[in-house]
Amino acid sequence: MPSLKVLKFGGSSLKTGDSMRQVAGIICAEKEKKAVVLSAVSGVTEMLVQFISLTRSEGDVDAFMKRITKVHTDLVDEALSSVRYSTQAKEELVAKLVKLERMLYGSSYIEEVNPRIRDYVQCFGERLSVIILAALLNEMGTPARAVDADELGIITDGEYGTAMVNMEATRSIIRPKLLKVLQEGETPVITGFFGRAPEGSVTVFGRNGSDYSASAVANAMGASSLEIWKDVDGFMSVDPKIVPSAKPIPQLTYDEAAELAYFGAKVVHPMTMEPARSGNIEIRVRNVFRPEAPGTIIRGAGKNGDIGIKSISCMKNLSLVKVFGEGTGYKLGVLADIASLLREAEINIYSVVTSLTCIALLVDKSDVAKAQKVLTEGGVTRMETHAHFALMCIVGEGLGSHKGLASRVFKAVAKEGVNVGLISAGASLVAYHFTVDEADLEKATRAVHEELFGC
Ligand code: ASP
Ligand code: MG
């Protein structure tokens, strides 16, 4: 097979007619064979998520359908100039929107929203955005075809809200289909964010999951590279909103990028690195609005392991839940019991530290009340919660073996009079993280960045 690139574009690059044309220009200029993966138009997934968070009246549905239709037909008018392609795109949009409308009426009539309905509704943003971009590419002379991931055959494990791709099943189904599209001289424009369970129901990969979709497509196709096009230059040494002198990071390993993404750097979805890593596919993060910027390359560690601290990421809105009990650390299965209670309540544990008398868990602030309830119901008698925590994560290959690094970080934090809470080191060889009071986060971040990067 000739080499194939997978290009993924995020919603903020699809927001206006101008930015859509910019995206189409990048695709048309790519001489290699390519497959494109798209997010929904900026703000559309949020609209869908909000709308389907409650049961709605018929009137609500009508008003919502008007709004979502207008967003997309306006974009067609802004982005396309030929009557032929705009008319066709609008007809295709209407056909998709009818399906959404029927599902929303259905949910309204039976007064029910369940995980299956939620996932089905949330993925409509992508089903609509691919129609517009494919039409624009056709208008610009690059033959393209809008492809829905469930029809194509991106197969998931069936977990609503946080599905994962079944890579083997997906590869065997989508590879021949996409090869056929490419052989027919067309560029597939594929919906990101979701796939279908083996029995057919639509399941989403979690917010920002289109990056993960693109990586799965790249793996399935044995792509030569995966380009993730965004509205920022790539990964930075720290959030530039906190430290304006933050530096761009030219290169990261898969592990470093995954840890940074998981602990707050919202550049790519944390799961993106897995299919790319297992296919040994290089990821390039690039900026649609500054294509001349080098961006960040993500690949396997070189022979020398690319040793060095690359970046600091931060996460706010966390809380600590401490579960006490005599000999907690001794008893078999306590941690598993707590984890499964929280799992059933769909609460994610970001970090956990145990001692003889206490298990401390870091969870999202918005999950604390639910965590307290399920743990109490599950038999926990003594518990403390601490709100307003933030987490700092320091990432770099070789961190696990870097002498003196921890003391530099903690001295810098202590000099600012900031107290460090939970510390986790050693679980990952490329990352360690610790908590600080949310009010101290910016101060501590600036101090650590200054210590490690000199600015
Ligand atoms: N549209 C989805 C979201 O906003 C997926 C994505 O953008 O990657 O989360
Ligand atoms: Mg997005």
Task: Note down, in words, how this protein is organized.
The structure is a single chain. This protein is of the alpha/beta class and 455 residues long. The protein folds into two domains: 228 residues, 3-Layer(aba) Sandwich (Carbamate kinase), CATH 3.40.1160; 143 residues, VC0802-like. Helices cover 41% and strands 22% of the residues. The chain has 15 helices and 16 strands. The strands form three sheets. The protein has an eight-stranded mixed beta sheet with strand order 3-4-2-1-7-9-10-8. It has a six-stranded antiparallel beta sheet with strand order 12-13-11-14-16-15. Helix 1 packs across helix 3. The longest helix is centred in the first third of the chain and has 28 residues. The protein is globular. The structure holds aspartic acid and magnesium ion.
CATH superfamily of the largest domain: Acetylglutamate kinase-like
Number of helices: 15
* Cross-sheet strand order for the largest sheet: 3-4-2-1-7-9-10-8
Characterize the largest beta sheet: strand count, sense, and whether it forms a barrel. 8 strands, mixed
User: Which radius of gyration do the C-alpha atoms yield?
Assistant: 23 Å
- Got a strand count? 16
Overall pLDDT metric: 94
Ligands bound to this protein structure: aspartic acid, magnesium ion
- The CATH class of the largest domain, by name, is Alpha Beta
- Kindly state the percentage of residues in helix: 40-55%
Please identify, by name, the CATH architecture of the largest domain. 3-Layer(aba) Sandwich
Shape: globular
The proportion of strand residues reads 15-25%
Distance between the termini: 47 Å
The total domain count is 2
Query: What name does the CATH topology of the largest domain carry?
Result: Carbamate kinase
